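Batch job 17 of 40 flagged for manual review because the log was empty.
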Amino acid sequence: MAVRTPLYNNAGNIQQMTSTMIDEIIAQVVYQYSVNPGVALSVVGSGGNLGTISDTRLQAGAASTSTTGFPSEATTAEPSVVTVNYSKINQSLAGTSLTADTGKLYPVYLDGSNNMVAMTLQDMKDTFIHPAIDLLTSGSTTTSQAGTYYISSTASVSGATEVSGISTAVFSNTEADTSQYTAAGIGETLDQPQTLQNFYLQRITRTNPTYTLPMYIRSDNNIQVYPTSDFETMIKNLIDYTAESSADGYSISYNLGTSGSGNTRGSGMTDTRLNGSGNYQTRFVNADDYRAQEFPNGTSVAVNTYYLRINKS
């Protein structure tokens, strides 16, 4: 590991950067990543490649009828489980190609003999890129994780952008609405759900932080301060390429499910369901029409909790 201390122009004096200045460049690397992440998540209608998660709920059993008396509970259909699958999160890579190093592409620093030399690709990764990815892949959801994603139980959140842009839930927890089932309504519609909670995919945002530009070796072997656009283009290329590549253990990826590697991001998406065995009800219509039906009932219990995770590998 080779962490370097770049040089900068301090009012005409060439000096080594402080650790605070290096941290400010790391924050700028995070910002550049956040503008258009190399590893992006999107919300799709179906078929998202992060996999399928399921919401379940009870629905009423089919109504039974008789011309001679009420069908018994034993012969009346039990409530059954309705499953709604969600595969709305898709991961994609930008396909970034690494800019070739001419030997003078990266910032200049003083070696052990006080010679001014350009940082190598590995120096850049060790000094700026890997620390930025360590921040990006943590379990936190602050501005230091800008450009990465988390799950929220609300569509509008300060410091983040809802990914679909139209408040599309990536998961909804529903249960049977027991208030909609009445004996007077037998045969009731089997599936009468209510939505208890929606969950949304958010991307963390941040404002452009201030930092000090380092110096580099020009083609004529003089040194100068980087033009802002040149430096930011270079670090954007490096962070995206590293995040997309698994070559050095600093790629970024996401997974979705009840378990998986990485750090949990945001709210768990819990699927709950009523646990009753059925609320048996009867309805007398006339002397030739006796009806019975079993409605959803019971206590709401957690069936599964799904998490979005961010992983560094």
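Reviewer: the log was empty due to a logging misconfiguration, but the result itself is present. The chain has a mean pLDDT of 97. Unflagging and moving on to job 18.
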